[in-house]
Recover the amino acids of this structure.
C-alpha cells in the first residue's frame, strides 16, 4: 500500500507567525509540491481574485444518504487490489464527494479542507465557461458558427482570424500554443506569467488578452483536437464582449445563483483584472457537485432549465475522429472518447464525461449510472494518468455497487 | 461650490475588456489618484487577501429612522457656508452613514459603492487591533505592562527591546520610524514594499515582521506620542503569538462574529501571509458603523460585553501632555486632544474619539450626542486636514440638529 500523503499542516507549510522562510511559498513555487498542498485551498492569499457571489437565495438541496464505501475493493489499472479508502488516502485528496441519483453517498474532506473551503480546480472551470457559451447561444447572443472576431474584432489581427466559436469550444482552431506545464518556454509558460501566476519577464504580454493577440496560426482551423488552455481564455473574451459584463459576474448570474450554490466562489485574475477563464475558479466541493448534477440532469434544476438541454447532450458526445490523432494513446483505456464543448468525453455511447484539471481535479458525470463525483486534489505532478485512472476505477466500483 | 467629484466609472478606470492601458492600475499607482476611486472598493483584485468570516448567525439589527439632512447648513472651517450634501459631494465620498442613539439617520453610497461593497479603511483598522489587545488583556492573555518581547522574543534583538505593550498601544515607544506617505525612502515607504503594497526593491525585508526586526531605537520608550503605523503591526504580531491564531481569524472570532457583522470582511496580507494590521481591513459600511456603535455602547451589545468597558473608557481619554509636542499645531482646533489605545481622542472631556485612515477614512464616536458616523472616501491626497475638518463640522451640525 502506498504511503498516506502528508498534509500541509504536517509539512508545516505556511505555519507560524511568520512561517519560516523554507515553509513560505514564493511566486515561482506556490502551485508546485509541496506548497500546493496549502495553496490550492488558499488562492486568495496568493493571487488577486474576484468574487463570484451566490446571491441571497437559499442553497439548493443536496439530500444525504451516506454509505460506508471505504472498504469497497477494486482492481487498479496495474492489476493491484485496492479500496476506495486507499485511493482517497494515497492520491493527495483534499475533497471528495459522490452523488447517486442526486443524493450524497460520500463526502470527505482531508488535508485541512472543510465544506466552506474554496479549492482551486484548475482547468475544471473550462466546462463552466463552455456552459456560459451554451447559455448565450441558447439566447441568440452568441452564434456558434460565427468567427470569434465577430465578437472581439482585435482577434482578426492574430492567429484566431477566421476561427469560429464552435472550433474553439472543441479546441480545434489552428492556433499554435504548446501546453507543456513544466516548460516555461512553452506558450503555457508564458500564459502563466501573463495571467499573474508567475512573475513577468521582460517582453512578456501585460495580461491574458494581450497574449492572445500575439498568437499565430500554424494549421487550418477545424482540424484535429489539440488541448490548448488559451482557447478557453479566448471564449471568455468573447463572452465578456458579447454580454458587456465580466466573467465573474456572468458566472454568478447564469450559474452560481440559478444552481443554488451554497458558497461564494472566486476567480483568479491577471494584472489587468481579467478573469482567468482557463483555470482560475475556486469553489466549495458541494458547489462543484451541484454543477455536475446539473449536467446529469440535462441542464435543469427543480423544473428550471439553466443550461439548454441540447447543449448538455452535445457535451456527452462529439467527434471521435478529431480526437484520435493526438490522444488515442493517452486515452487507450477509453476507446470511444472525444473532447466536446469544453468537456472530456470518456465514452460517447454512455455519455460519461468529465471536467478535468491538472494536479488531480475532476468533476465526473456518468449518466446511465446516475453518478456525479468530484475529486479535488493536490498532486505533486500536473499530469499523472495512473493516478487519474485509479480515481476513475474507484468511482466506477462505487457506481457498480450502488446500481 | 467645489466641483462634484468624478466617479471611477466616469473616469473609465478599469472599464472594458481589457481596460485600456492608461486606465489600468499598476503596482506603483493603485492607491493613488485617480486609481483609488476604483481600488479602495476592489482591494482583493489588487492584493492577496485573507477572509474575516462573519459566521452563520444573524446580523445585529441597525434600526432605521432616516431623515433628510442634505440641506442642513454648517459653517466650514474657513468660514464658508456649506451643507451636508455639499460636503458629501465634494470630499470624494464613497460611503457615509450616521447613527443617532443606534438608529440609522442617513446611509449614502456614492461612486459605485453599495451596502455589500468592502471598502479599504487604511489605518482605521488600528482601532480594531487595539480592541483585540483590550479583549486579550481582559482575559489575562496579554498584560499591558509587559515588554512586547515577552510575547515575541525576537523583538529583544531590535529597537523594541524593553518597550511595553502599553507604550505601543499609545504609540510612545522610542523606535525610529518616519511616516511620510509620499516619500518612498521613509520607513513607511519601505513598509509599503514589505507589506506587498509596492514591488520589493533589492535588500528590502521579505515581509512586515522581517521589517520590524530591522528597526532601531532612537529615544527612550514611554516619551511623547508619535504616530507610527509599525507599532500596530508589532501589536498584531504580539496578538498572533499570544493567541496562536492569525489576526484575520482573531478578528472574526472576537469582533466580527460577536458584533453581528452583516458581511464577511477581508484583510490584505504581505508575501508571507501576514495580515496587514496597520491598514489592511476591507469591510462594508454598516459593519464599520457596528464597531463604532459598540464603542458608543461601552463595548457591549444586547447585554453581552464584547470589549471590556474599562478598555473603552480608556479609549476616550489619555495623556494630553504626551500628545502636544508633535501634534498641538495640527490639532489646534481640538485643544484637549490626545491619542489613546489606537484611537484619536478629539476631546478628552466629552470623550469624542475617532478611528482615522489616510485618504479620508473615519469612524467617529461622539458619546454625549449619541452619534456614530462613518465616512469612507477616496481622496486624491493621503492627508488633508481641511477636508477632514469639513467632514467633522458636517457631522457636528447633524449631531446638533438631532439633539
Amino acid at each position: 500500500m502506498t504511503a498516506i500523503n502528508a498534509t500541509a499542516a504536517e509539512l508545516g507549510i505556511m505555519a507560524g507567525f511568520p512561517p519560516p522562510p523554507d515553509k513560505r511559498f514564493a511566486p515561482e513555487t506556490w502551485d508546485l509540491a509541496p506548497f500546493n498542498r496549502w495553496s490550492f485551498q488558499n488562492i486568495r492569499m496568493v493571487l488577486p481574485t474576484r468574487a463570484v457571489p451566490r446571491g441571497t437565495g437559499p442553497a439548493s438541496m443536496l439530500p444525504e444518504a451516506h454509505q460506508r464505501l471505504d472498504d469497497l475493493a477494486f482492481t487498479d489499472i496495474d492489476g493491484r487490489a485496492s479500496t476506495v479508502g486507499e485511493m482517497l488516502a494515497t492520491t493527495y485528496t483534499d475533497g471528495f464527494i459522490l452523488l447517486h441519483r442526486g443524493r450524497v453517498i460520500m463526502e470527505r474532506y482531508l488535508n485541512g479542507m472543510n465544506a466552506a473551503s474554496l479549492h482551486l480546480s484548475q482547468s475544471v472551470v473550462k466546462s463552466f465557461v463552455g456552459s456560459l457559451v451554451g447559455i448565450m447561444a441558447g439566447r441568440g447572443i452568441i452564434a456558434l458558427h460565427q468567427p470569434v472576431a465577430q465578437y472581439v474584432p482585435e482577434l482578426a489581427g492574430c492567429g484566431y482570424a477566421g476561427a469560429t466559436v464552435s472550433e474553439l469550444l472543441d479546441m480545434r482552431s489552428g492556433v499554435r500554443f504548446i501546453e507543456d506545464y513544466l516548460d516555461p518556454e512553452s506558450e503555457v509558460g508564458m500564459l502563466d506569467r501573463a495571467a499573474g501566476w508567475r512573475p513577468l519577464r521582460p517582453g512578456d504580454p501585460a495580461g491574458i488578452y494581450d497574449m492572445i493577440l500575439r498568437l499565430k496560426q500554424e494549421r487550418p482551423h477545424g482540424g484535429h483536437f489539440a488541448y490548448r488552455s488559451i482557447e478557453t481564455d479566448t471564449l471568455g473574451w468573447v463572452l465578456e464582449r458579447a454580454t458587456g459584463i465580466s466573467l465573474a459576474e456572468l458566472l454568478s448570474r447564469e450559474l452560481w445563483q440559478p444552481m443554488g450554490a451554497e458558497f461564494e466562489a472566486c476567480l483568479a485574475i491577471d494584472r489587468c483584472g481579467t478573469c482567468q477563464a482557463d483555470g482560475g475558479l475556486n469553489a466549495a466541493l458541494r458547489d462543484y457537485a451541484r454543477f455536475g448534477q446539473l449536467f446529469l440532469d440535462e441542464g435543469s434544476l427543480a423544473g428550471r432549465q439553466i443550461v439548454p438541454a441540447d447543449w448538455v447532450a452535445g457535451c456527452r458526445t462529439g467527434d471521435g475522429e478529431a480526437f484520435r490523432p493526438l490522444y488515442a494513446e493517452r486515452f487507450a483505456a477509453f476507446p470511444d472518447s472525444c473532447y466536446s464543448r469544453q468537456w472530456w468525453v470518456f465514452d460517447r455511447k454512455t455519455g460519461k464525461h468529465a471536467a478535468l484539471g491538472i494536479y488531480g481535479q475532476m468533476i465526473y458525470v456518468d449518466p446511465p449510472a446516475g453518478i456525479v463525483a468530484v475529486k479535488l486534489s493536490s498532486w505533486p505532478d500536473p499530469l499523472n494518468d495512473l493516478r487519474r485512472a485509479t480515481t476513475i476505477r474507484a468511482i466506477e466500483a462505487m457506481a457498480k455497487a450502488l446500481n
Notes: The radius of gyration of chain B is 20 Å. Residues 149 and 155 of chain B are 5 Å apart (CA to CA). Residues 385-402 of chain B form the longest helix (18 residues). Chain B has one domain: 8-140+245-402.
